[in-house]
Amino acid sequence: MSNSKFNVTISDTVYKRIHELNEEANEQQPLMLRIRVDAGGCSGFIYEYDLVMDYEPGDFIAEKDNAIVVIDSLSQSFINGAIIEYIEELGRSYFKITNPAAQAKCGCGNSFAL
Question: In angstroms, rounded to a whole number, what is the distance separating the alpha carbons of residues 99 and 72?
């Protein structure tokens, strides 16, 4: 299920937000946060976040207190060693990935270059 060489740090704020999203969604089965890297954005790659019910073979799966984060096998190579947080600031909240592999990022922080 997981690549043993893949490592990310996921903050407690991410798991807390997943719990909040599950409460809002009120689904029978808990939703998982899927993080993936796609081509796009102003710097070449962009982080995408989706709520899903299932994981795929090869996904990295991290779980804490029944809150689950999944990262597909292709995206793992782009964010290995990253720190994933959920930030709440005055007027906005967002997921933030601090990626040691990123050589450049755009002003929004959601697009990066390798």
Answer: 16
Rounded Cα–Cα distance for residues 18 and 68 (Å)? 8
Residues 60, 68 contacting (CB under 8 angstroms): no
Element (H, E) at 85: strand 83-89
Inside any domain, residue 1:
no
Q: What is the CATH number of the domain that holds 91?
A: 2.60.300.12
* 28-83 confidence digits (pLDDT tens): 888 999 999 998 877 788 899 999 999 999 999 999 999 999 999 999 999 999 99
Q: Could you give the CA distance from residue 112 to residue 40 in angstroms, rounded to a whole number? A: 9
Cβ atoms of residues 29 and 53 within 8 Å? yes
pTM to 2 decimal places: 0.86
Which two structure tokens, joined as six digits, stand for 11? 């903050």
Query: How far is residue 44 CA from its own chain's centroid?
Result: 18
